[in-house]
Every structure is written in C-alpha cells, then in structure tokens.
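For the sake of transparency, this paper describes our internal protein records without simplification. Because each token names a local backbone shape, the row as a whole describes the fold. One such record is reproduced below, unchanged from the form in which we store it:
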Amino acid sequence: MCLPAIVFFCIFAYLPMPGLYLAFVKYNYTDGIFSSPFVGWENFKFLIITGDLWRLTFNTVAYNIAFIVLGNIAQITVAILLNEIRKKWFKKVSQTLMFLPYFISAVLIGLLAYNILSYDYGLLNGILRSLHLDPVKAYSEPHLWPFIIVITYLWQTTGYGSIIYFAAIMGLDSEIVEASEIDGANAFQRIIYIVIPWLKPTFIILLLFSLGGILKGNFGLFFNLVGANNTALYASTDIIETYVFRSLMTNFNFSMGSAVSLYQSVFGFVVVLTANWIVKKVSPENSLF
C-alpha cells in the first residue's frame, strides 16, 4: 500500500534533486545545467545585496504566520461552534456552506476580488461614489493588501480546516462531557477545560506540518489576487513563489529562481527540526519524531 507514495516521492522529490546544481551556475541554454559556468554563491549574494531576499523572506513568513495563527484560531472556533449546535439539519447545512469556498478556484476568487476592488467598475468604489466619498485605488495601495489577502485566505480555508478539529472533538469521550454537566459545568466551562485541552495534540501536529511550509507561499492566491508584475504592490505582496515565477517566465533567469527555491527548502527544513525539538522538550508525546 505504501508503494504508490514511495514511487511518487522518488519521481517528484528525489530524482529532480541533482537539478539543485542550477542554483550555483550561470545557466545558459547552449551549455545546459551541468556545463554552464560555475559561479558558486554569486546568485545568493546578488539576492542579499539587492535586498530581494530579505523582502521575500519577510513577506512570505509574515503571511504564513498570519495564516497559521489566525487560521487555526478560526478553525478551532468554528469546530467548537459546530459541536455546540443541537439541530442536526442546521449543523449539516452550516458545514456544507462553510466547506464550499475551499472548492472555488483561485482564478474565480481573483475575478471576484477585481469586481469588488476595481477603481473604475468595482462594487466597493461604486458604493463609495454613491455616498459621495472618494474611491479607493486598491491596486495601487500596498498597505491594504495584507488585510485583503489574509481575509480572503480565511474565508476560503476556515470551513475546510475546521473539519479536522471537528473530527477530533467527535472523538472526545461523551462520558467526560456528561460528568462535567452533572458537576454543574456550563457550555463555556466545558469548552475551556475539556474541549480545548482535548484539541491540543491535534493543534501541535497541524502546527508542525504548517511550519514545514512557512516559507512556501500560496502562489495561486497571490498570483490571482495581485498578479506577478504589479510593481506598486511588491513591498507588501511579493513572496518567494511570485519571485520565482517572474524569474522563470519573465526574466528567464533560471539560476536565480533555483537559488531562491533552494533557500526556501533549506529554511523550511531547519524550521521544522527546530520546532519539533522545542515541542519534544516541552511535550515529548506530541512531537513528530
């Protein structure tokens, strides 16, 4: 049963690894990857000198921290609220409605956002004009986009992510809950002292998995909401994935794109090991290894 997964990772994760050499050469089509001039760490030095590496790292990490922290809070809250619903039909309807946004394409989300935020034809500016207020130039205002992106991400993923926590709550021994009710605990006390501690191991495992991709941005979301070439918004929306996309598809700089990707992978690997080490010290039974 493990064979398909092993074959998948061998083909898509391990066989391409020699291509990492591309990050240390000045690639040209004539010589290919392994015959192009070797430049060592020059690609990485260029990223550091230009300041691109720090901007990309900060934006990617900051967005992912917001996604992880706010996402898990929202998912746990929704799961607990669903568990408190007593009408089964209302619970099923609520789950379905919250689950649907996850299946909406990022392309469609970008289209919806444009129809709301467009300066000339957007719904938001249409309302502002009708109220005799100044319209907002959203696609020229970098400070607005952290809020727009985080809110959009939460809207799309909260319903789907809450399923895992809801399933964990379903595994809670009903006798414990009944005993607390007999002892006089109200709903709020049950949530604080029984449900939330019960969700702690699930939260830690999901947190460790999320930290592994803390330097991996949601390319589909960013690309379709902002685009890869909107220079006015680079300061607050440019992440590693959009930079790599531009390097490959616009600048045709394969070496620079590979250098950033290698940095991304090594950084994520170190973060996972560090986080797991901390968890192992604090709560050994909840560590990954």
Remarks:
- The chain is about 70% helix and 0% strand.
- The chain has a mean pLDDT of 85.
- The two ends are 22 Å apart (CA to CA).
